[in-house]
Design brief:
Order of helices and strands: EHHEEEHEHHEE
Number of strands: 7
Structural class: alpha+beta
Strand content: 25-35%
Helix content: 25-40%
CATH class of the largest domain: Alpha Beta
CATH topology of the largest domain: Aminopeptidase
CATH architecture of the largest domain: 3-Layer(aba) Sandwich
Distance between the termini: 27 Å
Oligomer: single chain
Largest sheet: 7 strands, mixed
CATH superfamily of the largest domain: Gcn5-related N-acetyltransferase (GNAT)
Length: 183
């Protein structure tokens, strides 16, 4: 396995990233990338200036993971978006390696903070399917992971919950914001 930069001239890898993104989210968050074309558009956007797009490839140069970073706040903070690992490569530490790789790159570019949003659209945490108002922080302080929501992975990586947008994806479907100081 090797982590490399996704470049605009690597059409095979671009197509594989789009397929990976679409397939990975079609059941848990189908609205995110409802078609392969929407996923392909996301991949192409990741190649724009002031972004980072890194892929993990296997020994046959097949994409098995992808992480992106978006420069925000004049480079002081970067958004991790997206992170996806092939189903056959999950549970082997690849997501951790991709996040660490992105952290090192954006830190070298002067970033202080890396942040992300991780939606709960399918009742995977105690923040989902409840009215978070008016005591949002009470709910956040008592968050429980019911169905292997990725926020637990990010916590293990040193990220903390810094906010929640209740109903961001519809009633009872929040977006959980997490951040980590990397400088």
């Amino acid at each position: 396995m090797q982590i490399i930069t996704l470049t605009p001239d690597n059409e095979q890898a671009i197509q594989q990233c789009a397929q990976l993104l679409y397939e990975s989210f079609k059941h848990s968050a189908p609205e995110a990338w409802p078609t392969l074309e929407a996923a392909l558009e996301e991949v192409r956007e990741s190649l724009e200036e002031d972004r980072v797009s890194r892929i993990a490839i296997d020994h046959n140069s097949n994409v098995i993971g992808w992480v992106g970073g978006i420069n925000q706040y004049n480079g002081h903070a970067w958004e991790l978006h997206p992170l996806v690992v092939s189903e056959t490569s999950r549970g082997q530490g690849l997501a951790r390696l991709l996040v660490q790789d992105l952290e090192a790159i954006v830190k070298a570019r002067g970033a202080v903070t890396l942040y992300l949003g991780t939606d709960d659209e399918d009742n995977r945490t105690s923040l989902s399917n409840v009215d978070l108002y008016p005591n949002v922080w009470e709910h956040v302080a008592n968050i429980e992971n019911h169905k292997n929501h990725p926020y637990a992975f990010y916590q293990k990586m040193g990220f903390v919950i810094v906010g929640v947008i209740p109903d961001a994806n519809g009633p009872g479907k929040p977006d959980i914001f997490m951040a980590k100081r990397i400088a």
